[in-house]
Write a structure and sequence with these properties.
ten-stranded mixed sheet; about 325 residues
Length: about 325
């Protein structure tokens, strides 16, 4: 549950309360008939009083349409030709009317206070903040809690572009100002239908121009199952390479030199090692862990990478002992 904040939507010069800013919750779905109704219901159940729920069906061939149509006029439903997450989210942005946007994958669910919590935080920040993010709880295909976000921040804090390039810190479900999304050119459709990391790409671009705030509150229930795009190591890796390459070419972090980008590459290899291990590719996991150490064998600070000290050595030890994979 989020901490309460003193937020008043009323105008002291008016005789009554002012309607709070509209938040557009954009849900993208592709063949998720098993989960999409749960995602939609969680969006409709928000305690924040002014939301519109948009579902963009990215060319589903299963029963997604039947599940969404059960909600009738409570949901704005659009069907488009399959083109990938980036194109689907951009389509939702174009159809949305809110000053604030919040993206939700069709297999995830929002906590009831998610929009309220992130919006109240945004109201207390200066105008140069464009994103408020949160942590998440992991659930399985049946909705049972199976864990929490690995290595969350120790307290409410700012997340910089440098930190996002080192390692993504939050999922696509974050509250963002519409103006900032449009300013940076929306999601990059070049990620297509298979590459991951399109959300990290847009957060990197926005954070190079604006400030980002992250809450410690867990306001998202992130579902872990076999069909997750995050379980496809090769696609995720190619997407990460694209995101990092774009940022480096655009000089998103001015003054960054060889040492910074070597660290970025080492952390990327480490994350791929964990993904391969999670896909039961033990040899691939060890190979990527070795490559990570070769690229940058020295230490990282907690602030720059957001992982425990000696995280690669700790990961290797857990693998040797046959324990569950390292939470990175």
């Amino acid at each position: 549950m989020i901490a309460e904040r003193d937020t008043d939507f009323g105008d002291p010069l008016s005789s009554g309360p002012v309607e709070p800013p509209l938040v557009s919750i954009i849900i993208t779905a592709y063949n998720y008939e098993a989960f999409v109704s749960l995602a939609v219901q969680s969006a409709l159940d928000q305690t924040y009083p002014s939301v519109e729920v948009i579902v963009v069906d990215d060319g589903s061939t299963d029963g997604t349409v039947d599940e969404v149509q059960k909600f009738g006029s409570a949901v704005r439903y659009f069907i488009k030709e399959n083109g990938g997450l980036a194109k689907a989210r951009n389509y939702g942005i174009e159809k949305s009317r809110g000053d604030f946007l919040l993206f939700l994958d069709a297999d995830d669910e929002l906590e009831p206070d998610a929009v309220r919590g992130m919006h109240e935080c945004m109201c207390g920040l200066s105008d140069d903040y464009a994103i408020v993010a949160c942590t998440f709880t992991k659930i399985d295909s049946k909705g049972n809690v199976i864990g929490s976000q690995g290595n969350p921040p120790r307290g409410e804090c700012d997340i910089t572009c440098r930190q996002l390039l080192m390692r993504n810190r939050f999922p696509v479900t974050a509250l963002a100002k519409r103006s900032a999304i449009l300013q940076c050119g929306m999601f990059d459709p070049g990620y297509g239908t298979s590459l991951g990391s399109e959300d990290r790409d847009i957060w990197v671009r926005i954070s190079s121009l604006h400030k980002v705030r992250m809450l410690t509150a867990s306001l998202l229930r992130k579902r872990v199952h076999a069909a997750n795009m995050s379980s496809k190591a090769d696609n995720q890796h190619r997407g990460m390479i694209r995101t990092i390459g774009k940022a480096r070419a655009s000089n998103a972090v001015p003054g960054s030199g060889f040492i910074f980008w070597a660290k970025v590459a080492a952390v990327r290899r480490f994350q791929v090692a964990m993904m391969r291990r999670g896909c039961r590719d033990k040899a691939g996991g060890w190979l990527e862990l070795f490559r990570s150490c070769c690229v940058w064998p020295w230490f990282f600070s907690l602030n720059e990478v957001g992982l425990p000290a000696f995280f690669r050595a700790r990961c290797a030890l857990r693998w040797i002992l046959g324990r569950s994979r390292f939470k990175g």
